[in-house]
Design goal:
It is built from 2 helices and 5 strands; from the N terminus they run ββαββαβ. With 86 residues, it is α+β, with helices and mostly antiparallel strands. The protein has a 3-stranded antiparallel beta sheet, covered by helices on one side. It has a two-stranded antiparallel sheet with strand order 1-2. The longest helix has 10 residues.
């Protein structure tokens, strides 16, 4: 869902809940994405439709998102372990 944009803006940025009400369901559907991020921190889109960015260092990840002008409160951060995606 995050891929669907209106004038280049993801739909969830205009949603009052930012799509957070969809996170649990979408994260479950998309947990296979975590396989590529073992032992890393990921920043999920608020609706759980995908991963915005990842890094082995949470501080660097957050700094990179801030530098891109992103509000950290938009994202759900998760540390991926070997069992996160199973």
């Amino acid at each position: 869902m995050s891929e669907q944009a209106n004038n280049g803006v993801p739909w969830w940025r205009n949603d009052p809940w930012m799509g957070r009400h969809l996170f649990a369901e979408n994260r479950e559907k998309n947990r296979h994405m975590l396989e590529n991020y073992r032992e890393m921190h990921v920043a999920w889109y608020p609706d759980g439709s995908g991963i915005r960015d990842a890094d082995s260092d949470l501080t660097r990840l957050k700094e990179r998102l801030r530098a891109a002008g992103e509000d950290l409160n938009w994202y759900h951060f998760e540390h991926v372990t070997d069992v996160s995606w199973v």
